[in-house]
Design a protein that fits this description.
Structural class: alpha+beta
Strand order of the largest sheet: 13-10-9-8-15-16
Number of helices: 6
Distance between the termini: 91 Å
Strand content: 35-45%
Number of strands: 17
Order of helices and strands: HEEHEHHEHEHEEEEEEEEEEEE
Helix content: 10-25%
Shape: globular
Oligomer: single chain
Length: about 280
């Protein structure tokens, strides 16, 4: 009898565990109804294809509770549940250029949602787009600049491997800081760490008076945010042109560039904007 009871208890526990686990990972509950959640390969694959290792993923609700099931196909990505405290969320978000926010409609977590959006506003993030929008799950992209959002209108091509898609200029005259936020489309054939983006401030005499270089690193996805920043304190008053180019870090040879909005503009560097000081 004891052996039979033990076997029955074990079978019951296995069935109960399977049901609970199945409901926990494949179903969510909203207003008393069971809603099927999208399979991870329906949304994570296209999102990962657009993301970079430096991006952070934040999940709120059901997906936070079962991150092991839903996020294991996300290698080299920082993944945090949004139900953590403010200090943990701030630490994960601060210094990032892009944040992917997944919201599962499972439990009422309005407090965490309000905290997340307040931090987005405080840290200067802009809404880009929703890449999955359903009755039970949303995946949205936020970036510190619209230039870091995925995609855009092709502006300039450098060689056959790099395309400048977005540009945003920010100038703080009080702090003497000039920033160019740029978004790039990168071909997967480009060798890692082989190319760098050069930003050049050129004066009225055609001389380069300041330069900022950013190595493209190992792009893991077709869209790469790149930020070029200058201190303008050493510059005298006047108007300056700012150019951008891409060069091989080993040979310093620049890739041939062309303006995709104006076929007549070609060269090694392309005009990005102006600085009036």
């Amino acid at each position: 009898v004891r052996r039979w009871l033990a076997a029955a208890a074990l079978a019951g526990w296995l069935v109960f565990g399977a049901v609970v686990n199945w409901q926990a990972t494949l179903l969510i509950f909203e207003d008393g109804d069971q809603l099927p959640v999208p399979a991870w390969n329906e949304w994570i694959a296209p999102v990962l294809a657009l993301s970079e290792p430096e991006d952070v993923f934040i999940y709120l609700g059901h997906y936070s509770e079962h991150m092991g099931h839903y996020t294991h196909p996300a290698p080299n990505r920082t993944i945090i549940p949004a139900y953590q405290g403010e200090a943990e969320m701030r630490a994960a978000m601060d210094g990032r250029l892009r944040i992917w926010f997944g919201e599962g409609r499972y439990w009422n977590q309005e407090g965490n949602l309000a905290l997340f959006y307040s931090l987005l506003d405080e840290l200067g993030f802009d809404y880009c787009e929703s890449y999955w929008h359903g009755p039970n799950f949303q995946m949205k992209l936020y970036a510190r600049s619209q230039a870091f959002c995925v995609g855009g209108q092709p502006l300039m091509a450098f060689g056959e491997q790099l395309t400048l898609m977005r540009v945003e200029k920010r100038y703080d005259p009080e702090a003497n800081v000039l920033t160019f936020n740029t978004g790039w489309q990168v071909d997967d054939s480009i060798p890692p760490y082989n190319y760098a983006v050069g930003f050049y401030i050129i004066d009225a005499d055609g001389e380069v008076v300041s330069q900022a270089d950013v190595n493209l690193g190992a792009a893991d996805g077709p869209y790469l945010p790149v930020q070029g920043q200058f201190s303008t304190a050493p510059l005298g008053r006047g108007t300056y042109d700012v150019y951008v180019g891409v060069y091989d870090v080993n040979t310093l040879a620049k890739l041939p560039a062309r303006n995709l909005q104006d076929a007549d503009q070609t060269g090694e560097i392309m005009l990005l904007g102006q600085l009036r000081k």
